[in-house]
Amino acid sequence: MPDSPDRTPDDSGTAGDHEVTGVTGHGCANASGCYCPGRARQTTSDLDTLLATPGFAGTVLDTPVTELAGTLPLLDRVVGVTVAGPVIMNDVGTHCAPVEMGGPLKFDDTHISLRINPRRLGKILVTEPAAHVPPTLRLFDTDGNTAHATYLTEQSDRLAFEALSLAVPAREDDAGSRDEQMPEPSSASVPDDDQIALFDAMLDDCGTQRLARLTRPDTTAAPRAVRVDSDQVIAALEHASLLGMRVTLCAVATGCLQVRHAVLDGCREHNGTMVIASGTARVMINFNLVEECWISWSQGACGPTGAIELYDRHGRCSFVATQTGPVAPITSEAWDQLISDLAA
């Protein structure tokens, strides 16, 4: 995979580094590696950094995110990358049309699948080749940090990529009317026992409200969940790989989920860093930066279905592993047994 100039979140440091007595101007002492919300508002974003790079060649598009998303399949074979704190997912293939928040769960092993929340996404940037980085399309969140990057390959449709810069921007009155028709999404407006609600809670605020409910099991709004140790999660994922289970893997970035539903081909962990292989996709998880691991249950196509949720030290979900859609009964039973043993 080509090198990317995008910064990756670093949750290093101790809890004391993020106290109000810090030195960063927003109350955090970890000036070089903090990605807490206050820093996102005070420091230079990924987008600003790229635009300020000497010799940078790129264009910020005026195309609305929802319209741009529909053109992603036209790029043909690409590399799709999502950086979500301690988790990175990359896949090689063709995009399917991204599904917006509230839509059906449509994931498979033949496409790069994205689920997006346009309210949490901002600018779109197309860049020309630079050094070892090929032509790239980047989606940024509203803070200007990278939510998803699409790298062109030799099998990509370069004409379709060039055409992105020629799209007619939306008129201001049209953009205003769309914003009025699009209600502000809220993870609190849907039941927590549904799989669509599980994924949309991540799209709403990276799961921070959901985690607050998980940690307060005495409330009526709290979903059924159990907190487990990261070593148990590592062992469970390795076991699922050995069995060749079909699993849905999801990397959670702000306003964008990259999801793959496929058989696990391999899984290896060393010194807290895990790599999961599934066909053309790879998921890298730095468990040293994972603060909490939760097992939850939500209503899926095969009934109550367990999910593994990983949260960083800022309370944001970075990764979800579960099963979605109809699967063979033996596969569903094997996953249920694995989750039950993990939560025991």
From TrEMBL:
<feature type="region of interest" description="Disordered">
    <location>
        <begin position="171"/>
        <end position="191"/>
    </location>
</feature>
<dbReference type="InterPro" id="IPR053733">
    <property type="entry name" value="Heme_Transport_Util_sf"/>
</dbReference>
<feature type="compositionally biased region" description="Basic and acidic residues">
    <location>
        <begin position="1"/>
        <end position="20"/>
    </location>
</feature>
<protein>
    <submittedName>
        <fullName>Heme transporter</fullName>
    </submittedName>
</protein>
<feature type="compositionally biased region" description="Basic and acidic residues">
    <location>
        <begin position="171"/>
        <end position="181"/>
    </location>
</feature>
<feature type="region of interest" description="Disordered">
    <location>
        <begin position="1"/>
        <end position="23"/>
    </location>
</feature>
